[in-house]
Amino acid sequence: MKYTYILLFSVLFLACGNKEKATENSEEIVVNNNLIEISEQQFKSENMQLGSLSEQAFNTVIKANGTIDVPPENKSSVSTFVGGYVTKIPLLVGDKVKKGQLIASLKNTEFIEIQQQYLEISAQLNFLKNEFNRQKTLFDENITSKKNYLQAESTYKVSLASYNGLRQKLQMMNINPNAVDKGQITATINLYAPIGGYITKVNVSSGSFVSSASELLEIINTDHIHLELAVFEKDILKIKKDQKIKFKIPESSNEIFDAEVHLVGTSINKDRTIKVHGHINDEKATNFISGMYIEADIICDSKKEISLPKSALKKSGDLYFALVLKQQKDANYIFEKVKLKIGVQDENNAQILNPDILKGKKILIQGGFMLSNDFNGA
Q1: Are 259 and 279 in contact (CB under 8 A)?
Q2: How far is CA 279 from CA 229, 236, 241, 258, 299, in A?
Q3: Which candidate among 217, 267, 268, 302 keeps its CA 20 to 30 Å from the CA of 340?
Q4: pLDDT given at position 367
Q5: What pLDDT does 57 receive?
Q6: Is the pLDDT of residue 72 over 80?
């Protein structure tokens, strides 16, 4: 019996000691109906903050997807007017080129034949011109027949047309006709960059044969990039020029960029969307790449409403409420639960439809997550 009393006394002593220790290490949250009381220590430890109603702008937005693109004049596909074998292709995808820079060389015996034809026509042209002038003089003096005059005229003009055509063809092949006139015939032609920019495609290699229908390279100039958005038919009448656009590149980052609506398409695509062209405000701030997928919000309207931060809203079932500071005494905070009527919302704020009950009052706007579970029901 002696040992039994000692054991019971020990158990009671330990139980009382643990209860006192738990009371010392934690402070209870006191809940009474719609009131909740917390200590100043709890207020600070939970990083709670007080605030009040404020006016915030709520945007009416239309969501759209699209890509980053460049104007047609900033994109160039390099090809050749006549086929040939590639003898030089010094560039790789990603290389930067200047307008007029050598980008490829081709070789073909056909180039020689064209120059030969040009020289033959050129050599005949002076004789045919003199014969035409002679026949014209004789015809004017009624010494020769009109038939001879017209035949000389026809022969000269046909040859002149062939000469001019071959000369233009040589220039398009980047062969100098004046050098050919001096007997400088070449079997190689060079291709030059029509615009400055970056190489985005290389479709050939040294030694391969390319025809006039082949694309050797693609060059894109990213100095003037823009947005190409697809907007559904039901939303297009809300889109106007100069409306603000917020967009991001989801595959790359969540950073938000600014743009403006520049053009709205006038035809509907097969998927019932309309193209919307947007200009990026600071297109050189980031190294955008043509073809990047983007997600955009087109801001159609903006209206200021009385609101609270979403962090101030507490939810109980289908109802929303806020915790309003009712009294502060003895280093304790007493909050009252107040029902809210919520209107439009965005990522950060919510419109309050019954603001009168909160005007001039301090509201818990941050750090009240631990208090949400202390109320059940309205």
Answers
A1: yes
A2: 11, 18, 11, 9, 14
A3: 302
A4: 81
A5: 86
A6: yes
